[in-house]
Amino acid sequence: MKIGPFASLLAAVLLAAAPLRAQEHAEAPASAAAAETAQAEKVDIITPHITDGNHMEVPWILPPFFKEITLPHFEPVHIGPVTLDLSPTKHVVFLFIGAILLFTLLTVSARRHARATRSGQAPKGGPNVAEAMILYIRNEVILPNVGHHGEKFVPYLLTVFFFILTLNLLGLVPFGSTATGNISVTATLAFLTFVTVEVAGIRANGWGYLNTLFYWNNDLPVVMRPLMFLIMSPVEMIGKLTKPFALAIRLFANMTAGHIVVLAFVGLFFGFAGTVLTFSSLVALAPITMAVLIMVLEIFVAFLQAFIFTLLSSVFIGQIREAHH
Questions:
Q1: Among residues 159, 50, 163, which one has the least CA distance to residue 98?
Q2: Which residues of 76-86 are buried (b: 16+ CB within 10 A; e: fewer)?
């Protein structure tokens, strides 16, 4: 019996939706009101999947082939008036998984590429794909936008691209979770880019870096210079903050929105499946077909958002390095 490509995609979506059934963390309700609340929480399959938490689902050998586990909890660390909870969460776990997976794949690809080069052969397979992606991002995205002597920024920007791409793709695999759908993760990535941009500006411009903070136009009449200084300096400072804010919100919103749409269609599928005779009904297949198409689009979006984050980071670095011109 042959299984067509649509059936394969359908099976993948249903497998990815399997953990949606494992959303109960509370004990049995003791009252009717509590039962209604528990029922409302039970049918909410979207929010628990896209938000962070101390529970995560893993594959299991026994039906229903998944198991929910509770992550360990550590005692909070107190630093003066600040209390830090360093307990791992679902997104933290996938941050480590993404980092380990990326380090392993790129290290293996680099060694295989070096081995092929020493033997006088062209790299094949994974190393060839990695080399093509690295060269494209370096030569067509980073260097043209960062500007002259931009080689020192290539390692950071390549790391950002591949790390975001890995996290985005991990959210599309069964039992996976999209860490870039967490505003804390995207805000941290944006903050790192913000620090890189400002340090690059200070090193490139020296004292001229102050012109990116305080507006002073020598071409204006003398009377207008202080007035424009008072008006435009706050605008310049706000502009510095809007860039990392835009980076964080764009990545967070795009990765979250796609998963919400997919989960909504999967929820409609199970809803219609309970009211019709068979799963082959067109009514039930319509939302799952849309979910499959959105999943395919999400693969493209995963690459696109990593590309855009890297492109904008390169542009911001290049702009501030050339601020004195």
A1: 163
A2: eeeeeeeeeee
Give me the mean pLDDT over the 302-318 stretch. Answer: 93
Which tokens sit at 190?
């944006």
The number of beta carbons lying within 10 Å of the beta carbon of residue 243 is 19
Domain for residue 76, yes or no? yes
- Tokens of residue 299, six digits: 């693969």
**Locus of tokens 């890297």:** 310
What whole-number distance in Å separates Cα of residue 132 and Cα of residue 126?
10
Q: Which residues contact 296 (CB under 8 A, 6 or more apart)?
A: 9
Question: Is there a domain that residue 39 lies in?
Answer: no
Q: How many alpha carbons fall within 13 Å on the CB side of residue 147?
A: 14
pTM of the model: 0.79
Helical (H) or strand (E) element with 55: strand 55-59
User: Tokens for 110?
Assistant: 């680099």
Tell me how many helices (H) and strands (E) the chain has. Answer: 10, 4
Q: Which two tokens stand for residue 204?
A: 């490139």
Task: Give percent of the chain with pLDDT exceeding 70.
Answer: 77
Domain coverage including residue 166: 5-21+45-321
